[in-house]
């Protein structure tokens, strides 16, 4: 697997002309839902940013970072913040999910984007792997974080994917939910260790899988053990509804 391409991001000034590196936007022309986590089932718009600082073997959006398989010139564009705000504002849907990749790689440029979306009446969920602490400017009303720390079973070195200082910052913000992908009860034991060590709450567990059959199987493996821990459980609605089609 390739190393993620480095990007240079300058300071945010709040100007709508700032550009962010985008993989895809969807939800306006063809409506869709947030498929995971606390807002599962809510109508949503998606701004998926390109680039990631991890190289997870089981990642399902490798077109945002794996340049051994994908061409970044075909898979990403630099889009003005003002255009993204106008695109989202054209829809009555309230929730905008900013996902990736890893969005917080570009967080200095996310500040004007978030401000523009909030001023147009949107609420925002930022989906992050939890390795980069959030900028203070993003800790504001109308913004929530879906923090998804990646376990070793997801095909990543936890020395890279578990960053205690960043997790502490998210936990202290009061604006984060912690969503873990799991496939075995052993994964839940590891989640317990991380939640206890870093005071992560609330905890959401999502079954691993990119097919309805895999999601169902993992759900049945995990459900009793998740319930016994008094955690939240989420499915992957976009897999069940749209067969994990890109842009849905």
| Silhouette | globular
Strand proportion, as a percent range, falls in: 15-25%
CATH architecture of the domain at 19-179: Alpha-Beta Barrel
Binned, the helix content reads: 25-40%
Protein architecture, described:
The chain has 248 residues and is α/β, with parallel strands linked by helices. It has a domain at 19-179: Aldolase class I (TIM Barrel, Alpha-Beta Barrel). Helix content is 31%, strand content 21%. It contains eight helices and ten strands. Strands 1, 2, 3, 4, 5, 6, 7, 8, 9 and 10 form a ten-stranded mixed β-sheet that branches. α2 packs parallel to α3 (107-119). The protein is globular. Residues 1-14 have low confidence and may be disordered.
Essential attributes:
10-stranded mixed sheet, disordered N terminus, alpha/beta, globular, 248 residues, 21% strand, TIM Barrel, 8 helices
Précis, in short:
With 248 residues, this protein is of the alpha/beta class. Helices cover 31% and strands 21% of the residues.
What secondary-structure arrangement, pairings included, does this model have?
Blueprint lengths: L18 E8 L5 E2 L9 E7 L22 H4 L1 E4 H9 L5 E5 L7 H13 L3 E6 L14 E5 L10 H4 L2 H10 L2 E7 L2 H14 L4 E5 L4 H17 L3 E2 L3 H6 L6
Parallel strand pairs: 3-5, 5-6, 6-7, 7-8, 8-9, 9-10
Antiparallel strand pairs: 1-3, 1-4, 2-3
Helix pairs in contact: 2-3
